[in-house]
Amino acid sequence: MKKKIIVFTGGGSAGHVTPNIAIIKEMDTSHWDINYIGSKQGIEKDLIHHLHLPYYGISSGKLRRYIDFENVKDVFRVVKGCFQARRVLKRLKPNLVFSKGGFVSVPVIIAAKSLKIPIFIHESDMTPGLANKISQRFATKIFTSFAETKKFFPERKTKVIGSPIRKEILMGSAEKGRAFLNFNKQLPILIIMGGSLGAKRINEAIRESLGKLNKAYQIVHLCGKGNIDNKLLDIPGYRQYEYINEELPDILATTDLVITRGGSNAIFEFLALKIPMIIIPLTKEQSRGDQILNAKSFEEKGYSITLLEENLTSVTLSQSLDKLKHNRDQFIKNMNVSGHGDALQVIINEIKKQG
């Protein structure tokens, strides 16, 4: 039987790639030939490389919301990327293009539309990113993580499904996690995740508060590349890591509370794992404000507490943790009735229909 062909696209940040990877890992490779189009040097190239898939790098520009001379240059880069993507798609003749957004996806979507190839897109955040705002007019189907996002897209082709969660993240062993960390069962485990690059202000607040936090929690601090503090290596019950990959599911299986940024993929994973969270979103100066809206939505639903970075001190951090710990059972109860289904399986089923 001849295989169907699918092309995934999305990049610029890990958040635009990891949901694609979750979907790719569940695809039946006996029926599907899987390909990826991304930028020539973006993070997606490195992440997809580990999956040993055909990868096609194209020219792409950055989509900016402000006036900059680079915008003029990037128009030409996007146009060039459209022609490059079109050549790839014309040769592959895919049955479907699936996009997770990011600036590299725009040339691919435009090229796919010109070749009459069906297009699925998924928007993770509360408000659509610029790439998906542009892409929505070309899309065959649109999926969103948040119910609030649906109003930004055409009703007839939009479906709220939640975020596709990596299955391996749900299959950790608490016993293995405690053994890896060498933690006891007497104190709860708190994990701090500031993203792949860490978060300077969060790292500082945690370390300023260590004297008090260490009495109440055993702490796993994922502080980002180059952010290990050698002076704190020997503190009992405090583990620092730049990044954890293979052991992460096991560590999360034994985690009681989490402090995190407000990236959609991460917070939906914690929701699926029923781990109450303090969300410290990126500020509007650092982002377009999407993490603030994500955090607000989760707080309103009773899944988390929001602590704005501009209000972050050792005192406010301690107060928020006390509140989260004291009401942990209620947060978990709210998460248990969240109503979020298996977004990953929904997408797989929709892809099968298209094939």
UniProtKB/TrEMBL annotation:
Subcellular location: Cell membrane
Annotated source species: Heyndrickxia oleronia
GO biological process: carbohydrate metabolic process; cell division; cell wall organization; peptidoglycan biosynthetic process; regulation of cell shape
Binding residues for UDP-N-acetyl-alpha-D-glucosamine: S13, A14, G15, R166, S196, Q291
Name of the protein: UDP-N-acetylglucosamine--N-acetylmuramyl-(pentapeptide) pyrophosphoryl-undecaprenol N-acetylglucosamine transferase
EC number: 2.4.1.227
Role of this protein: Cell wall formation. Catalyzes the transfer of a GlcNAc subunit on undecaprenyl-pyrophosphoryl-MurNAc-pentapeptide (lipid intermediate I) to form undecaprenyl-pyrophosphoryl-MurNAc-(pentapeptide)GlcNAc (lipid intermediate II).
Family: Belongs to the glycosyltransferase 28 family. MurG subfamily.
Catalytic activity: di-trans,octa-cis-undecaprenyl diphospho-N-acetyl-alpha-D-muramoyl-L-alanyl-D-glutamyl-meso-2,6-diaminopimeloyl-D-alanyl-D-alanine + UDP-N-acetyl-alpha-D-glucosamine = di-trans,octa-cis-undecaprenyl diphospho-[N-acetyl-alpha-D-glucosaminyl-(1->4)]-N-acetyl-alpha-D-muramoyl-L-alanyl-D-glutamyl-meso-2,6-diaminopimeloyl-D-alanyl-D-alanine + UDP + H(+)
InterPro entries registered for this protein in UniProt: GlcNAc_MurG, Glyco_trans_28_C, GlycoTrans_28_N
Gene Ontology cellular component list: plasma membrane
Lipid bilayer topology: Peripheral membrane protein
Molecular-function GO term, any one: undecaprenyldiphospho-muramoylpentapeptide beta-N-acetylglucosaminyltransferase activity
Broad class of the protein's primary localization: membrane
Pathway: Cell wall biogenesis; peptidoglycan biosynthesis
Domain Glycosyltransferase family 28 N-terminal: 6-144
Keywords, sorted A to Z: Cell cycle, Cell division, Cell membrane, Cell shape, Cell wall biogenesis/degradation, Glycosyltransferase, Membrane, Peptidoglycan synthesis, Transferase
Domain Glycosyl transferase family 28 C-terminal: 190-336
Record carries keyword Cell division: yes
